[in-house]
Amino acid sequence: MGVNNKLMIVSITLLLAGCSSTIALNEGETWEQFGYDLAMRGSQMLDGQHLEPAELQEYRKGYISGLKTFCSQDGYDVGQSGLFYQGTCDKINPDFAEQYNIGWVDSEINQLNYDNELGTYMPTEESYDY
Questions:
Q1: For the chain, which end, N or C, has fewer CB atoms within 10 Å of the first or last residue's CB respectively?
Q2: How far apart are CA 71 and CA 77, in angstroms?
Q3: Interacting residues of 9 by C-beta distance below 8 A, sequence separation 6+
Q4: What is the DSSP letter of 25?
Q5: Is 45 helix (H, G, I), strand (E, B) or coil?
Q6: What are phi and psi of 53, to 5 degrees?
Q7: Where are the alpha helices (DSSP H) in the chain?
Q8: C-beta separation of 39 from 45 below 8 A
Q9: CA atoms 77, 6, 88, 48: torsion sign
Q10: Residue 84 — left, alpha, or beta (φ > 0 → left; ψ -120 to 50 → alpha)?
Q11: Dmax over Cα atoms in the chain, in whole Å?
């Protein structure tokens, strides 16, 4: 996943978190599925202040279920995938963040090596050790 995709995911998450109106679901999507999918992306839980009580209950149920599934994954594999991790597993799986960080760094190193092999790596001043 490229930097642009990562930035887009972060931007969308921040936009959703800051919305002052009701979140529109996709056709056929339930609040439970919406919460589950959000958690499976490693995103923080939205406050849900604009949801009806029944919607909020379903959303939370899905989010908690998705978070349990997401945090049971190998953090290294999630880091390798390039998914932006927001600290959602810190209480559920304390080792997740450390493994995620190792996977993330390995992924970045692999991408740099790949770019070097293709000749597309363009070093910046920040990339040099002085």
A1: C
A2: 11
A3: 41, 83, 84
A4: P
A5: coil
A6: -55, -40
A7: 3-17, 31-40, 53-71, 75-81, 96-118
A8: yes
A9: negative
A10: beta
A11: 58
Residues listed for the chain: 130
How far is 78 from 96, CA to CA, in rounded Å?
A: 9
Q: Are 41 and 5 in contact (CB under 8 A)?
A: no
CA count, 13 A, side-chain hemisphere, 3: 3
Token pair in block for residue 78: 């999630």
Block residue for tokens 């529109």: 24
Give the Cα-Cα-Cα angle 98, 102, 105 (nearest 5 degrees). Answer: 135
Give the burial class of 100: count Cβ atoms within 10 A of its Cβ; 0-12 exposed, 13-18 middle, 19 or more buried.
buried
Residues 52-93 pLDDT 10s: 999 999 999 999 999 999 999 999 999 999 888 999 999 999
Task: Indicate if the pLDDT at residue 114 is higher than 80.
Answer: no
